[in-house]
Amino acid sequence: MEALLVIDVQNGIIEFGDFNNELNLITNIIEDFKAKGKPIIFIRHFDDMEESPLYKGSVGSELHSSIKEFAEVVVEKQTPSSFFKTELADVLGELEVDHVFITGFNTEFCCMFTAISAFDRGYKVTFIEDATGTVNTDETYEMPNLDIRDFVGTVLYWSDVIEVLDYEEYVEEYK
Known about the structure:
Distance between the termini: 15 Å
Structural class: alpha/beta
Order of helices and strands: EHHEHEHEHEHEH
Helix content: 25-40%
Oligomer: single chain
CATH superfamily: Isochorismatase-like
Number of strands: 6
CATH topology: Rossmann fold
Shape: globular
């Protein structure tokens, strides 16, 4: 069984940039999974620090309005991995999931950590590169011209254990 993981699509992240393209792709994939009756699991990241945009209970910690209506199953986390000290593995086990699709934010943290953690737990993993986004830039990492999403996608692709697709490839392969 395939399941979609929608990671950290929260107000406190979306407010940092123009993520309309990413949100449109994520919504399209959600609608595809919903139409096929396949599970969609939303992940919400929380921080304990009141100054964090993802402080638990704040508006920033809420799922973004573009996807909130689809959220039937929500897993809460406090680390980059959606598996670490969460019930995600139990939820996937109950649903008999063996293949997860990764979308959401931030590409180089929560999406990548979750993809690697899923592989380590024996899942087939499909990382939909352009259906992830990040608030960070090449300046954040002091690496001029770094395309974070492309870099992470390339690293995961070359691992030869995680399938990395862009949205159009996803449509051709799975829709």
